[in-house]
Amino acid sequence: MTVSRTKPVRVALLGCGTVGSEVARLLHEQADDLAARVGAPVELAGIAVRRPNRHRDVPADLLTTDVDGLVTDDGVDVVVEVIGGIEPTRTLLLKALSAGRSVVTANKALLAECGAELFAAADASGADLYFEAAVAGAIPLLRPLRESLAGDRITRVMGIVNGTTNYILSAMDATGAAYGETLDEATRLGYAEADPTADVDGYDAASKAAILASLAFHTRVTSADVHREGIAGITAADVAAARALGRTVKLLAICERVTENGEESVSVRVHPAMIPRSHPLAGVGGAFNAVFVEAEAAGQLMFYGQGAGGAPTASAVLGDLVAVARNRVVGGRGPRESAYADLPVRPMGEARTRYHVSLDVADRPGVLAQVAAVFAEHDVSIAAVRQEGRSADASLVIVTHTAPDAALRSTVDKIAGLPIVREVVSVMRVEGAEP
Ligand code: NDP
Ligand code: HSE
Fold this sequence. Notes:
Dihydrodipicolinate Reductase, domain 2; 3 domains; 6-stranded parallel beta sheet; 27% strand; binds L-homoserine; Asp/hSer_DH_NAD-bd
């Protein structure tokens, strides 16, 4: 193996938890290969943590609690950030970029909230900012969007980008269990964190959707722009209703380019949706992630793999590290922020979606007509209706054609108030072609 004698690329590793400890391990175990691929040795200059005595697997002399000192150390070329959260990471990375150090980060929350600021600091100093691990863990997805598809026009990105919620929904589908039971199981198995809010309430997926939409549509999209609904309200009845119709429930991140009256905009949302069991995303089980990308020339592409976990995420971090280290060795920069299109983000009410509505109603003449009249009143077209009588009651299932989300929401609100409706059993959006 030929290893260059060029001076080493020195790396400050910020964080040594689930992901950071795997980054440190791979850097050590694959040192020779990495040096050959980069053209210079890649060396750890230090590892910043909060509690050094908890990190027995890494050399003690590398550990420091002085994260600020490590980031500003003149001997550091690249900062790898796997701490997470907004502060102090934002301040640390701005300092690193402003001083010309390249940054590799897995921090989706920070990028989705402060991405523009970080890119501006990188541009000002000519440093690289890479973040492949921030969306869908090990899956190479951001580099294809940023580079491989840079000559195409992406129209849609849709996928499962949160492993914890996919594990929970897959388990509910397989066993018929309630949400609470499967969340407990996910926590016991280590998929869900002690505080699972970011995952189950959709914040994690919304950050990822913002990053995907920004790259796909060359437009700044922040987490605040993303319509977000989590899975905490999904009941066993919702999952059973989906199953009865040959569908399954998934938490989807959906980023769409919309052209209306000659004007372009983007729609970015995260919410649970029923998809046909024949849809490729329906077969994505457990903690896996999968993302569909549709582009005008390329057509449909699908990316699939492990979206979380220490080693899979470290793989993406190391890939970025090799890229930025190579740029350091041979000169040059990776791609910058591309936000030239500056498309407006549509409010959720204007997104065109389809609804599945399951109702318990009185079983007597005119009931269906009353329900159908509310849909007509809101200009929502019905695609399918199924009714099953049960003595004095009936179960009524309605699936709509696409309509503005606001119209669908108002329809359901009005139906819920009809005296003939005993209960709205389940309301969920529907994605994918009809089964
Ligand atoms: P962990 O909580 O496991 O690790 C965080 C690490 O950061 C710990 O080593 C902690 O030190 C250190 N740390 C926290 N605050 C500070 C601070 N102020 N100064 C110095 N060190 C600090 O997080 P993960 O490894 O799970 O996640 C890291 C990042 O990677 C996050 O942005 C996350 O979103 C992202 N990510 C994680 C994935 C996963 O599967 N875990 C998947 C994809 C992305 P100490 O150990 O001493 O407390
Ligand atoms: N908590 C995330 C998930 C992993 O469950 O997918 C980090 O992105």
